[in-house]
Design a protein that fits this description.
The complex is a heterodimer of chains A (145) and B (430). Chain A has 145 residues and is an alpha+beta fold. Chain A has one domain: Sufe protein. Chain: A (Alpha-Beta Complex). Chain A is built from five helices and three strands; from the N terminus they run H-E-E-E-H-H-H-H. Chain A has helices spanning 4-11, 60-73, 78-81, 86-92, 101-122, and strands at 24-30, 35-43, 49-57. In chain A, strands 1-2-3 form a three-stranded antiparallel beta sheet. In chain A, a hairpin with a 5-residue loop joins strand 2 and strand 3. In chain A, helix 1 crosses helix 2 and helix 2 packs across helix 5 (101-122). Chain B starts with a helix and ends with a helix. The longest helix of chain B has 39 residues, at 278-316. In chain B, the strands form three sheets. Chain B has a seven-stranded mixed beta sheet with strand order 2-8-7-6-5-3-4, with helices on both faces. In chain B, strands 9-10-12 form a three-stranded antiparallel beta sheet. Chain B has helices at residues 2-12, 22-25, 31-37, 54-60, 79-96, 109-123, 139-149, 168-174, 197-206, 226-229, 278-316, 343-351, 362-365, 372-376, 381-384, 398-417, 420-429, and strands spanning 42-43, 103-106, 130-134, 154-158, 179-183, 210-214, 233-237, 248-252, 320-322, 333-338, 355-356, 387-391. Chain B is 43% helix and 12% strand. Chain B has 17 helices and twelve strands. In chain B, helix 7 (139-149) links the parallel strand 3 and strand 4. In chain B, helix 4 (54-60) packs antiparallel against helix 11, helix 5 (79-96) packs parallel to helix 11 (278-316) and helix 11 (278-316) packs across helix 16 (398-417). By secondary structure, chain B is of the alpha/beta class. The chains are: A alpha+beta (145), B alpha/beta (430). The A-B interface holds A 2, 7, 10-11, 13, 16, 18, 27, 31-38, 54-63, 99-100, 102, 137-138, 140, 145 and B 143, 147, 340-342, 344-345, 348-349, 352, 361-363, 366-368, 370, 381-382, 385, 417-423. The structure holds pyridoxal-5'-phosphate (PLP). Pyridoxal-5'-phosphate is lined by residues 108-110, 113, 138, 140, 185, 189, 214, 216-217, 237, 248 of chain B. Residues 108-110, 113, 138, 140, 185, 189, 214, 216-217, 237, 248 of chain B line the site of pyridoxal-5'-phosphate (PLP).
Chain lengths: 145, 430
């Protein structure tokens, strides 16, 4: 069901952990839906993401997208990190099954939430960054049968 | 000609041994042999489906090879097919204390449930349009009831207690003058809870309401007598008792208005059209025969192993609960909830260790909600997401269970170490 890349990132996730006194943290999703993602960012004076860690409660796709997203933002400036979209994460993983696409939304949201936290703490604005929603849900249209 | 006789059908069945003696080749009874043949798989998902017994496969083969006739044909060539169907029907009828003309073959549990509920609704609509079922039924029942709700029927979905047992006083309260059907499963497929079927049968009977039970998980595992239990209709599926997939039956008590569900030929006394699945029905008969003869011994062995598994997991993995009742459950069912982790992740990691299990997490159900059964017994969403169902067979060994428990401990610890919920919990308790 999952691509090799997804399985690799799920079984050997990169950047799992916490950062003490992180420059920014963001937690999104909710336990009710079965996915929670938390991202910690360590950002230096030049607004470069020096380090990033994550913790995720969720399915294989949720863990893999968290892992991939952290790899993609590491070493980037906060502005560059804004380009790490859910689509980019999904492509980097060679795709996700359709029912798992919402997991990749969560990764993007988690990074944005951590960036927002950083921006607020430092009184700066990051172009294109909006206040994150803390709760992501998807509405399945009930099919008539 | 022995080779010819066996190789072709066996290839058809996807089994790749060339055999002279079927008994010998399918005898994986020792652990080493099974493990060699099955690539170290530890199969603990017998509620999903079971291994077709070698004796069952053997009985099926001639109905692919020499006895391929259509049972409805008049010529002598088809006689063995007719006999095979009649034989299975007798075996099943006898096992339930029913009459042969009360057993109707279907394509499985789902069809049997659909038939029982839709056909009853239609046939008795003039008497009333109210149906009672429970919140923990299989989707074959629940989605059928929802379908009927959209077509003018009213359905009461009974609550269950924390163990998943239907509350009899609620059942009594739900009965109305226009109630035509009570459909309650014999045993639950997720948490293994065995329902008070005898009492429900009595209540239904006292009110003149028809009683259907989905016995897919119970038939062949628990003794059932339709008269003793007051059952009017009963669904079963062959692949849950070491028979082939795609065949089942519906028991319908004589005297019920039984509408046809699948329209077509005159098969199954015109109630279920379509050329019979002769090899499947023949295999089903053999599976039932073996299941009935071995029931007691099997249940004893499975119960022992189940209790060992439950004991070890509950005592060795912290923040874990058992779902369902400690003793009033199917002899092969264990269902756990591990706090702070998500079930699909757990399943994938078990899979990479060759262990097959299942989960009621949202991710495995294809929706965002975890299992309706786990929610009905009162589990909060986040705990229901971390469930693991392991369902044993008599073939499992204590060594396998030991291996599985060790892997569960490792994997749960690993997933918790990357869980933000666990992180928060540990910070709070520090
Ligand atoms: C309780 C119950 N009812 C019905 C079914 C459906 O049976 P089948 O797979 O034969 O359609 C199952 C099996 O998944 C079951 O466990």
């Amino acid at each position: 069901m999952y691509t090799e890349k997804v399985m690799d990132h799920f079984q050997n996730p990169r950047n799992v952990g916490e950062i003490e006194n992180a420059s920014g943290t963001g937690t999104v999703g909710n336990a009710k839906c079965g996915d929670i993602m938390r991202i910690y960012l360590d950002i230096d004076k030049n607004q470069v993401i020096r380090d990033v860690k994550f913790k995720t409660f969720g399915c294989g796709a949720a863990v893999a997208t968290s892992s991939m997203a952290t790899e993609m933002v590491k070493g980037k400036t906060v502005q560059e990190a804004m380009e790490v979209t859910n689509k980019a994460v999904m492509e980097a993983l060679d795709g996700l099954p359709p029912v798992k696409v919402h997991c990749s939304l969560l990764a993007e949201e988690a990074i944005h939430a951590a960036l927002w936290d950083y921006a607020e703490k430092n009184g700066i604005t990051i172009e294109g960054l909006e206040k994150p929603k803390s709760d992501i849900s998807e509405h399945d249209e009930d099919e008539e049968y | 000609m022995v080779e010819r006789k066996y190789i072709i059908p066996i290839a058809m069945l996807g089994i790749y041994y060339i055999i002279e003696n079927v008994d010998e080749a399918f005898n994986f009874n020792t652990t080493e042999r099974r493990i060699t043949y099955m690539k170290q798989t530890i199969y603990l998902d017998n509620a999903a489906t079971t291994r077709t017994r070698p004796e069952v496969v053997e009985v099926m083969i001639p109905y692919f090879t020499e006895n391929y006739g259509n049972p409805s044909s008049v010529y002598e060539f088809s006689a063995p097919c007719k006999q095979a169907i009649a034989h299975t029907r007798e075996t099943i009828a006898k096992s339930l204390g029913a009459k042969t003309n009360e057993i109707y073959f279907t394509a499985g549990g789902t069809e049997s449930d659909n038939w029982a509920i839709k056909a009853t609704a239609e046939a008795y609509a003039s008497k009333g349009k109210h149906i009672i079922t429970s919140k923990i039924e299989h989707h074959a029942v629940l989605h059928t009831c929802e379908y009927l709700e959209k077509r003018g029927f009213e359905v009461t979905y009974l609550d269950v207690d924390e163990y998943g047992t239907v509350k009899l006083d609620e059942l009594k309260k739900a009965i109305r003058p226009d109630t035509i059907l009570i459909s309650i499963m014999f045993a639950n497929n997720e948490i293994g809870t065995v329902e008070p079927i005898k009492e429900i049968g009595k209540i239904a009977g006292a009110h003149g309401i028809l009683f259907h039970t989905d016995a897919v998980q119970a038939y062949g595992h628990i003794p059932i007598n339709v008269d003793e239990y007051g059952i009017d209709m009963l669904s079963s599926s062959s692949h849950k008792l070491n028979g082939p997939k795609g065949v089942g039956f519906l028991y319908i008590r004589t005297g019920l208005k039984t509408r046809s569900f699948v329209h077509g030929g005159a098969q199954e006394r015109k109630r279920r059209g379509g050329t019979e699945n002769v090899p499947g029905i023949a295999g089903y008969g053999k599976a039932v025969e073996i299941a009935m003869a071995s029931m007691e011994e099997r249940a004893k062995k499975e119960t022992e192993l189940r209790d060992y598994l439950i004991e070890r997991v509950i005592s060795e993995v912290p923040y874990t609960r058992l779902n369902g009742h400690r003793t009033n459950r199917l002899s092969n069912n264990a269902n756990f909830a591990f706090q702070f982790i998500e079930g699909e992740s757990l399943l994938i990691m078990l899979d990479s260790n060759g262990i097959c299990g299942s989960s009621g997490s949202a991710c495995t159900s294809g929706s965002l909600d975890p299992s309706h059964v786990l929610l009905a017994i009162g589990l909060p969403h986040e705990i229901a997401h971390g469930s693991l169902r392991l369902t044993l067979s008599e073939e499992n060994t204590k060594e396998e269970i030991d291996f599985v428990v060790e892997k569960i401990k490792e994997i749960v610890a690993r997933l918790r170490s990357m869980s933000p919920l666990y992180e928060d919990f540990m910070k709070q308790t520090r």
